[in-house]
Amino acid sequence: MTQTSPISAQERQLIIERWLPYIPQGDMSPRATQQLTDAMWECSAPIASFVLNRVAAWLDGAVPFKGDDVFDVAWSEQEVSSPVFSKKGRAPAKPRVCTISRREDGASWTVSWSMAKYRDVPEIAISRVDHEGQSLGIVRGEITTGEPGSGNRERFSDCPPPVKGTVEGDIEYGAFDDLCDFSQAIRGSLPEGHLNVPLEQAVTYAHLERLKDIMPILAADGGLPGWLCAYRHLMVAGAANKAAGRWMSGQYAPLIAGLRERGAEWGKSVMSYNDSDYRCCLIDFADGSIGLFSDNAASCAVEHAYVARLEMDGGAVTSVAVHLLRGSDYEGLVTAIGEGHARPDYVHDYASGTTSFPGGRDGWAAMTMFLWQSMADSTYALKDGRTEDDCHYWQPDAAAVSAVHG
Fold first, then answer.
1. Rounded to an integer, what distance in angstroms lies between the CA atom of residue 243 and that of residue 281?
2. Which burial class, exposed, middle or buried, applies to 278 when counting CB atoms under 10 A from its CB (0-12, 13-18, 19+)?
3. b vs e for 127-161, b when ≥16 Cβ sit within 10 Å of the residue's Cβ?
4. Are 142 and 163 in contact (CB under 8 A)?
5. Collapsing DSSP states into helix, strand and coil, what is residue 235?
6. Which residues is 143 bridged to in the sheet?
7. Which residues are registered as beta bridge partners of 310?
8. In 171-326, alpha helices (H)
9. What is the Cα–Cα distance from 209 to 60, expressed in whole angstroms?
10. Which residues are paired to 387 by β-bridges?
11. So what's the pLDDT on residue 241?
């Protein structure tokens, strides 16, 4: 979301006086790294839950929204197969989709209601439709049915009975700006007083107290998240990256020296550890700069490897630019990175402590991957790893070569 003016001292004070997630300092153990990454995704989850609840009541409440001078509305149902629920003796519910399209420029969003993939509870999701008609998820959350055991997934021991219709939501990677844009777009079409609802009727107990504390920030944005909430979201990410950066800046030298000593260099061998799920090595680029290759084959993500290109001054790393490796031609991608023909997805400057995401949403995924895998490589690769020379990253698959050459 584009910030229209510099943040004032009063606005910044408003943010820091309200709830902010805990960000660990010092050594980045696996537990600390989990807390660090959780902080970035959890900081805006109460806001996401509130938006989902209010959007659901607006579009599908007692008086459903049917469009106005700003938006057209269309409803549809989608076929879906769900073996999880068919085993329980009932057919899966058809997702209901509401498409709202802005008349001025054709910008479109979808709001869908369906059953959660692995839990027998309803959920709601908001997505943005891009210019090619593809749906990009923004936020989703589970809707409490009011039945015992529904809602409050964190199972607080002292939580009150679940309230029907409350939502517990989560932001998709890098999608908070999209949520702010959507919220500000629809704000003028909401009925008067629609946002003035008891918060106990909007979000689950897991998010309730935090939402209450940050409501003044939402109020400053007009009742739904806008640029001030977006600034807060980036501020938390920046603080988390600074904490990780202070630790990681001291880990590069021993990691580089250790990999060099063990011969873990691109084109020669990799350091393999954790049952060979993790692999890493150095990359020496033609201009003399150094890169760190890291791969987590056990990851569920589509992209699970990256190259972190390091800028150095006097042996100290001054900045890191992380490139996700997409597809299977890692050797070609590494060459493009070395020649400066590839745009990084995520950049952190250690000197200034600034973080940027040239890759947009992919940049947030690259950041999370880098924080986890750089911690793992620095902590375990040299201690537990072994070198592997037979590596498919730069060696062509024998079967593929045979097929090509007959």
1. 24
2. buried
3. bbbeeeeeeebbbbbbbbbeeeebbbeeeeeeeee
4. no
5. helix
6. 167
7. 290, 320
8. 176-186, 205-220, 227-248, 252-262
9. 26
10. 271
11. 95
Cβ–Cβ under 8 Å, residues 206 and 156: yes
pLDDT at residue 175, as a whole number: 96
223: left (phi over 0), alpha (psi -120 to 50) or beta: left
Which phi-psi region, left, alpha or beta, contains residue 245 (left: φ > 0; alpha: ψ -120 to 50)?
Answer: alpha
- The token duo for 322 is 């992380």
The two tokens of residue 325 are: 């490796």
For 406, counting Cβ atoms within 10 Å of its Cβ (0-12 exposed, 13-18 middle, 19+ buried), the class is exposed
- The residue assigned the tokens 């923004």 is 138
CA 394/CA 282 separation, integer angstroms: 13
φ/ψ bin of 32: left (φ > 0), alpha (ψ from -120 to 50), beta (otherwise) = alpha
Integer-rounded Cα Rg, in Å, for the chain is 24
First to last CA, the chain: 54
Nearest CA to 50 out of 60, 40, 58 is that of 58
Place of tokens 């004032």: 8
Residues whose CB falls within 8 Å of the CB of residue 165, separated by 6 or more in sequence, listed in order: 53, 56, 57, 143, 144, 146, 201
- Cα 150 from Cα 306, distance rounded (Å): 39
pLDDT digits (tens, 9 = 90+) for 222-278: 999 999 999 999 999 999 999 999 999 999 999 999 999 999 999 999 999 998 899
156-170 pLDDT, tens digit per residue, is: 556 778 889 999 999
Angle between helices 176-186 and 45-60 (to 10 degrees): 40
Mean pLDDT of the chain: 88
Q: How far is CA 251 from CA 31, 186, 247, 378, in A?
A: 18, 47, 7, 6
Residue 361: Cβ within 10 Å count: 17
List, as one string, the DSSP characters of 21-66.
Answer: -----SS--HHHHHHHHHHHHHTTHHHHHHHHHHHHHHHHSSS---
Residue of 193, 181, 206 whose CA lies nearest to 109: 181
